[in-house]
Q: What sequence folds into this?
């Protein structure tokens, strides 16, 4: 069995072996999902501004760590976007991103007076851990599902970054001087963040990434339709192992045993739900 390469933090676009790109190994469904993911990742700077506001004067995490995190997320967008441009010359990252930005701004990003929408820094960190658990599992699943060598490498590098991001936010969660939240409160925040994944961000990024501007009139945006297409395109990459890892990371973030009944039951339920959706 081949040994997976270890990807360290701090890689750049020049480290990727672009010349190995093999167009015959590009799978259309996955390409559609990657284009959408590129837009979401590339939108990180707004999130950095928001988190810097939430953590102003706290000393933790350091502003430098947040800025580094944001730079890595934006680079994920650039790497996925460049790969998608190679796979589909009709796709232009900057153009698609400009359309996405115009139509999608979460309310709490735009309001300079807004504190944490999760109610506390601890709540904010739990929500971030949920997102990083999701992205870490998603890019691991893409790495394992694709046969295209450059996408394998990019997804492997991103998955390693996302796991480090989870650790950054997990450690930050436990470094807060605020009182700990109850287990149920933590579970509520985590579940709330999972449900937000159904909002416009994924559906609209899928739309802007996969419907050309000149097609907009005949294919107007519809959240329900594009939400379904977006999950159909992305869900097929997962296997049971990726889902269990995702659930274990979230369970750990809410303070429960990642190998206990909650993780096992949640993993089983989620896997069944996903299998039913793509069947
Ligand atoms: Fe990312
Ligand atoms: Fe991340």
A:
């Amino acid at each position: 069995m081949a040994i997976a390469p270890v990807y360290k933090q701090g890689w750049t676009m020049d480290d990727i072996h672009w010349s190995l790109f093999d167009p015959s190994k590009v799978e259309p469904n996955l390409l559609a999902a990657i284009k959408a993911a590129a837009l979401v990742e590339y939108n990180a700077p707004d999130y950095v501004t928001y988190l810097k506001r939430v953590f102003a004067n706290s000393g933790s995490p350091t502003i430098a760590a947040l800025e580094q995190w944001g730079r890595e997320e934006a680079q994920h967008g650039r790497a996925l976007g460049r790969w998608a441009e190679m796979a589909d010359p009709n796709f232009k990252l900057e153009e698609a991103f400009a359309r996405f930005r115009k139509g999608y701004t979460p309310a709490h990003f735009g309001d300079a007076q807004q504190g944490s929408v999760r109610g506390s820094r601890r709540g904010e960190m739990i929500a971030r851990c949920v997102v990083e658990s999701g992205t870490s599992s998603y890019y691991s699943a893409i790495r394992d599902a694709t046969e295209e060598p450059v996408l394998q490498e990019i997804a492997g590098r991103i998955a390693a970054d996302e796991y480090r991001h989870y650790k950054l936010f997990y450690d930050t969660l436990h470094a807060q001087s605020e009182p700990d939240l109850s287990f149920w409160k933590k579970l509520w925040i985590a579940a709330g963040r999972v449900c937000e994944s159904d909002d416009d961000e994924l559906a609209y990024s899928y739309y802007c990434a996969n419907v050309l501007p000149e097609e907009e009139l005949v294919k107007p945006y519809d959240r329900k339709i594009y939400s379904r297409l977006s999950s159909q395109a992305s869900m097929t990459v997962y296997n049971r192992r990726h889902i269990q890892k995702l659930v274990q990371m979230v369970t750990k973030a809410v303070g429960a045993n990642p190998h206990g009944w909650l993780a096992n039951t949640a993993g089983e339920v989620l896997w069944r739900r996903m299998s039913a959706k793509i069947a």
